Amino acid sequence: MAILADTAGPKDAGLAMGFVTMCIALGVVLGPMLGGILYHHFGYEAVFVSAYSLVVLDLLLRIFMLLDKDKSPQEAALKPNVQTYGTFPSNDGNTEQPATPKHGQKMRQPSLNSSVTASSGESMPLRSQRWTQRTAHQNPLLILLSTPRMLAAILSDFMQSLVLTGLESILPLRIKTLFQYNSMEVALVFLLLAFPAFAAPAIGYLSDRVGAKVVICLGFLFVAPLLVLLRLVDHYEISQVVILCILLFLTGVSLNMILTPAWSEAVYVVDGKEASTPGIFGAKGAYAQAFGLMNVAYAGGSLAGPLLGGLLVERVGWNNLTLATGIVCALCTLPCLYATGGRRPREPAMVVEGGEYDGDMGLGDS
After folding, report:
1. What digits encode the pLDDT tens for the residues 99-123?
2. Cα-based angle 43, 47, 48 (whole degrees, multiple of 5)
């Protein structure tokens, strides 16, 4: 995630995270579907052959990525002072102090993600040079976990994973029991839950424009009644199959509206903390820790979803389970409405001697 943030930058974090969450959602949903198809046609061994092939492909892509990061000096000179997230080397060796503003010189909020070159030609890398005094380095995890905005993103990430994996573990058996479908037919029905993942980049782009608060809250408000309405499918008819397919498709859209902005919020939380208190996370920032917390939340939801779903569906039944899950999702709207960041403000310019510089300003952590 931090590598992707290096490439895209904070301005397009939502769009970039949209591609990531698209791949995550496709992997979670398409895995059982493709596994069912391979098992149905080619047997048990074919499932593991496909998994090992993907592992080898992932290893090759990582090797190419490592080779690509070693840019030539000519390429590095084109972007001499680009903020990184601790994944690639950056030109932070220059320790010259920025020139003191002259009399009558206007200076507004400095950029945190780019450098400014004054008319005298002095370079000011902003990861090592601050317009304000650096504060003492603090524990990034404690700072992030004490930030309501980050906790709201973690909650959204956890709930999306819990609902998705819960459906993935319970619903196939219910479809097979109600419709008498084989493994391939069940997998094809679940394809409707995976299709909306292709819209994740568009959802991320929308989140960058209107704010994560709107998108995430609408996602929770949409998915809550959809989960409750799954109780309508209780016997085999063509109309019942159509209703199930529509509900699964809309549920997939709603879950992607929750997950994609939540991941981009992790970037904005770290940027906001750095903006309000420069140097609070140290020289390399806290993007890796933020993404690590999001990964832990997603893994926790993936673990709790099947366990709680399987337990509750036996204890309270399918209808009560979907009702309770829908109510919990609706209640999750409240903390997200309170803590999640809204629309990103327009980045102010900083006027220095020799002209005006439009910098990239970090967000507050709200």
Report:
1. 455 555 544 544 444 444 444 444 4
2. 120
